[in-house]
């Protein structure tokens, strides 16, 4: 099952889960309302005084429709408001979850060895997967655990515990991070975050009951002559019991959903790294260290289903566990495992081995290591099929990209202050006349220190090959996420000034600007109805822009557009009129296309690939443009990899 099918399945699974939770909420509200209405009516002396009626009939007769509705409305209101409040709290995506767990964001430019190890691994994985590098958070906890959180790849964060950094080797940490990246691509993060909101709404019913019990001593002392005190006491106890039962069933649903996803993520991690010893070694160490994978933070229970391994409760498997038993997970990865966990001495000995840098990591295939990536039609289609399913070849390509990157530029991209100058430099024109206008525009808005840094970096950035520009931009995004609101507004204004300095906007300028804004603002694309045929004008605008991005004449652009139309089965699709490819219209078109169901995006990407490769081979610039547009469509394209001839 590919990325597009996985995303569609995740949406269906999310809808089913929401439906199950809605049924659970309705049942909880109904039972709670009935019991409370019964208590109120009975203790108020309601019901007929007719001895000939049996006890059950007299009891049930006190529950009038008006009383039942009067109780159900506030109960339902409490659940809905509490769920919406939690949803609002988590609206910040992965950052909100990481901060709720007490995570500390790692500075992308950190030189601390443990921090550098995980930052390098996450950066490699992100470049290999085609997504913007997510921020990394550390939980100061001795357990070995990790999590991925967010609503989509662009607002995702990776969290790791201090125990993971201290006990895991680079290969083991790579296996754990690959597992978390699988959750990102399979749509599990969105589902997990929604679960938290719904469960919180159910949990609040019990919390209301406990709150009433806490103030009961004051209430009883205030007035003991009426029956309001005993009535309130019984209602509070009912709320506690029913709230606990509702939470129990909610957690059972959460656990059932989560367990199977963990097996799939383990398998995906092995496929990504082709190194089962990595993730298996991490799981074995969880069984060896005293802290295991149990996270001590008070919010760990709330987010338990998001973790790499069981974060709360006993280490052994149980029917309510959010994760499969540790031994079963290891044996699925390593069937011949003897069942022995390493000793602490063995763990310390492994950690004492010299760390291995990305450049020293063996490539999956020596031929792939030497191959130069060329965007042919076959390579483009293979990359589209590999979305969300990156493999060791893509990881090796990402490692080579980082290895070949100028260390000074890489360090600059990781510095929050300097990263702005890196992005400005990436947008500078090769034309000295245009470049002078761009620098003049910057001088009116950018901070003088940033301009001075730009002056030092621009020649290095301008000398970069096209294939290195998008990875450098992606590497800078975690640092740029740390800009304050005021700094970001200034930065965004400077980007616009640089792009518009020559009075026109190239597709590459638009694509880079779109990626920066798309990632840093993390706003979800609004849902778009229909399919590609019903959004044909937007399709034509995007295909026309890519067709004109080639270096050929007008005839070539028409042939490129026609190749895309044929791939879509829309042979009557006409190229957009002059001006229809303006940045404003292009931005609106991509926004609407990004909101389509994921299953409609695959044929669109395949058509765009035909557009840029219609001559048999695309230029490096066109290859990076295709990747940039795919990222804007929320379909991150992994780096292009082609093997050398046999």
What this model shows, in words?
The chain is mostly helical. It folds into 3 domains: 72-353, no CATH class; 377-390 and 526-632, no CATH class; 407-521, no CATH class. The protein contains 27 helices and 4 strands. It has helices spanning 3-43, 55-60, 65-89, 94-100, 113-129, 162-167, 170-185, 188-222, 228-273, 276-288, 326-333, 344-351, 366-370, 377-385, 392-404, 407-413, 416-426, 432-443, 448-462, 466-480, 485-500, 507-521, 536-548, 554-568, 583-594, 598-612, 620-632; strands at residues 104-105, 136-139, 146-149, 157-161. A 4-stranded mixed beta sheet has the order 1-2-4-3. A hairpin with a 7-residue loop joins β3 and β4 (157-161). α14 (377-385) runs antiparallel to α26 (598-612) and α23 (536-548) crosses α25. The chain is globular, with a radius of gyration of 29 Å. The two termini are 30 Å apart.
Indicate the radius of gyration in whole angstroms: 29 Å
The chain-level mean pLDDT equals 80
Give the tally of structural domains: 3
Shape descriptor reads globular
Report the biggest beta sheet as strand number plus sense, adding barrel if it closes: 4 strands, mixed
Which consecutive residue ranges, at least 5 long each, have pLDDT under 50?
Answer: 357-372
What fraction of residues sit in β-strands? under 5%
What is the SS-derived class? mainly alpha
Helical percentage: 55-70%
Count of DSSP-assigned helices: 27
Number of strands: 4
End-to-end separation in angstroms reads 30 Å
What's the arrangement of strands in the largest beta sheet?
1-2-4-3
């Amino acid at each position: 099952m590919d990325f597009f099918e996985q995303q569609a399945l995740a949406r269906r699974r999310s809808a089913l889960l929401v439906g199950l939770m809605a049924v659970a909420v309705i049942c909880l509200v109904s039972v709670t309302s009935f019991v409370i209405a019964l208590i109120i009516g009975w203790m108020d002396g309601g019901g007929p005084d007719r001895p000939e009626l049996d006890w059950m009939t007299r009891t049930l007769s006190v529950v009038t429709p008006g009383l039942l509705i009067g109780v159900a409305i506030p109960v339902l209101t409490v659940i809905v408001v509490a769920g919406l409040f939690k949803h609002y709290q988590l609206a910040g995506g992965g950052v909100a979850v990481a901060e709720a767990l007490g995570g500390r964001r790692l500075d992308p430019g950190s030189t601390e060895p443990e921090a550098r190890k995980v930052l390098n691994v996450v950066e490699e994985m992100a470049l290999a997967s085609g997504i913007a590098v997510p921020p990394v958070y550390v939980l100061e906890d001795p357990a070995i655990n990790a999590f991925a959180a967010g609503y989509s790849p662009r607002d995702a964060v990776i969290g790791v515990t201090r125990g993971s950094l201290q006990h895991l080797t680079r290969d083991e940490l790579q296996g754990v991070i690959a597992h978390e990246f699988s959750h990102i691509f399979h749509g599990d993060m969105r589902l997990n975050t929604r679960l938290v909101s719904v469960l919180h709404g159910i949990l609040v019913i019990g919390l209301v009951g406990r709150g009433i019990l806490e103030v009961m001593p004051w209430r009883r002392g205030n007035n003991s002559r009426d029956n309001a005190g005993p009535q309130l006491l019984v209602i509070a106890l009912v709320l506690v019991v029913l709230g606990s039962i509702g939470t129990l069933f909610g957690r059972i649903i959460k656990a059932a959903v989560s367990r199977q996803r963990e097996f799939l993520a383990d398998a995906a991690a092995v496929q990504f790294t082709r190194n089962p010893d990595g993730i298996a070694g991490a799981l074995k160490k969880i069984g060896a260290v005293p802290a295991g994978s149990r996270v001590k933070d008070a919010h760990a229970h709330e987010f338990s289903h998001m973790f790499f391994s069981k974060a709360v409760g006993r280490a052994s498997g149980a029917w309510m566990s959010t994760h499969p038993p540790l031994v079963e997970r290891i044996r699925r990865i390593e069937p011949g495992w003897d069942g022995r966990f390493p000793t602490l001495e063995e763990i310390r000995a492994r950690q004492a081995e010299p760390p291995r840098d990305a450049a020293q990591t063996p490539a999956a295939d020596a031929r792939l290591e030497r191959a130069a990536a060329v965007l042919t039609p076959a390579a483009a289609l293979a990359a589209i099929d590999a979305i969300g399913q990156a493999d060791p070849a893509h990881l090796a390509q990402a490692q080579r990209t980082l290895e070949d990157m100028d260390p000074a530029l890489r360090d600059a991209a990781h510095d929050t202050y300097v990263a702005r100058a890196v992005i400005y430099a990436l947008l500078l024109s090769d034309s000295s006349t245009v470049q002078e206008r761009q620098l003049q525009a910057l001088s009116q808005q950018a901070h003088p220190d940033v301009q001075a840094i730009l002056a030092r970096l621009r020649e290095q950035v301008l000398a970069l090959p096209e294939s290195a520009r998008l990875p450098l931009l992606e590497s800078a995004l975690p640092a740029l996420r740390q800009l304050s609101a005021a700094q970001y507004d200034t930065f965004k204004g400077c980007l616009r000034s640089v792009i518009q300095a020559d009075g026109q906007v190239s597709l590459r300028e638009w694509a880079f600007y779109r990626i920066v804004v798309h990632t840093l603002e993390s706003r979800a694309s609004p849902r778009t109805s229909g399919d590609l045929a019903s959004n044909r004008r937007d399709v034509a605008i995007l295909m026309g822009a890519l067709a004109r991005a080639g270096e050929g004449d007008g005839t070539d652009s028409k042939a490129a557009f026609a190749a895309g139309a044929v791939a879509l089965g829309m042979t009557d699709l006409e190229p957009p009129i002059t001006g229809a490819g303006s940045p404003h219209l292009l931005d609106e078109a991509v926004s609407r296309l990004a909101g389509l169901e994921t299953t409609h995006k695959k044929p669109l990407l395949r058509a765009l690939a035909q557009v840029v490769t219609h001559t048999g081979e695309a230029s490096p610039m066109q290859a990076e443009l295709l990747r940039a547009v795919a990222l804007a469509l929320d379909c991150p394209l992994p780096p292009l990899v082609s093997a050398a001839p046999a």
